[in-house]
Amino acid sequence: MDTMIIREKLESLRRCVGRVEGRKPESLEELTQNPDIQDIVVLNLTRAIQLGVDIGSHIISDTDTVAPATMGRVFIELEKLGAISSRTCKAMTGSVGFRNIAVHEYTNIRWEIVLSICENSLDDFRQFASEINRFLQSGKMG
Known about the structure:
Layout: H1 3-22, H2 28-33, H3 35-61, H4 71-81, H5 86-104, H6 111-120, H7 122-138
Helix pairs in contact: 1-3, 1-7, 3-4, 3-5, 4-5, 5-7
C-alpha cells in the first residue's frame, strides 16, 4: 500500500478541521444568519467525513477484508483491523449520517446539530487521524 496517499489525505483532513475551527460560529443565531459560514462549515465537515471514509477504504483495500457495503461499515472494519478504537469507530460511524443529510438533503440540515458538531466533535476527527497515524507506524500493514 502507498502510505503516502493516506498521509496526504490525513493532511487534507487536518486542513478541513482547521477551516471549520477557524470559522466556527459563536452562536446558533450567527450560524443560521450567515450563509457563508454555513457553506464553509458544512462543506469542510462533509469533506472531513469523506476523507475518513477514503482513508479507511484505502487501508481496507490492502487486506483480505471484503470491501464494506456502506460508508459506516468502513469504520467498523477499521476497528476490527485494530486501526481505530471503538470510541472513534462510533464517532466516525455517526458522522456518516450527518454527511448523508448534508449531501443529499441540504435543505433539511438542523443548524443546532451543526453547531454541536463544531463545538463538540472536531476532536473526533483529530483522534481518528492520530489513531490512523499510529496504525501506519505500527507496521501492521504494508
